[in-house]
Design a protein that fits this description.
Udp-n-acetylmuramoylalanyl-d-glutamate--2,6- Diaminopimelate Ligase, Chain: A, domain 1; globular; single chain
Length: 108
């Protein structure tokens, strides 16, 4: 599924990259070591962790996109890191539970 297919439902603000990226699943966590241990390639990362380490972890697990929840501010350094790694960076006012549910339903 392409992220663009659920863009409106998630109320996504695309900060960097194309919403046409392909996602095959999702992983929701704010504990980055948990993401490294359990996320699968193709999962979109759903989190409130808006910093460079999040981008590094997403790159490590081959996540095509990161969705930052609760309208958290995104530092410019995170945007620059996402651009360097080719990761789509999005933000939504929804919380992690809501985003996870919408993506889960869409993928089923």
């Amino acid at each position: 599924m392409r992220l663009s297919e659920i863009r409106d439902e998630l109320g996504l603000e695309i900060l960097l990259g194309s919403p046409e990226c392909e996602i095959t699943g999702a992983y929701t966590s704010d504990l980055l070591s948990d993401v490294m241990a359990h996320a699968d390639e193709g999962d979109v990362l759903i989190t409130i962790q808006a910093h460079n380490n999040t981008v590094a972890v997403a790159s490590h697990v081959d996540a095509p996109a990161i969705i930052i929840c609760n309208s958290r501010p995104i530092p410019e350094s995170m945007t620059e890191a996402a651009q360097e790694h080719g990761i789509v960076l999005c933000r939504t006012e929804l919380n992690q539970f809501q985003v996870s549910g919408i993506i889960y339903s869409a993928l089923r």
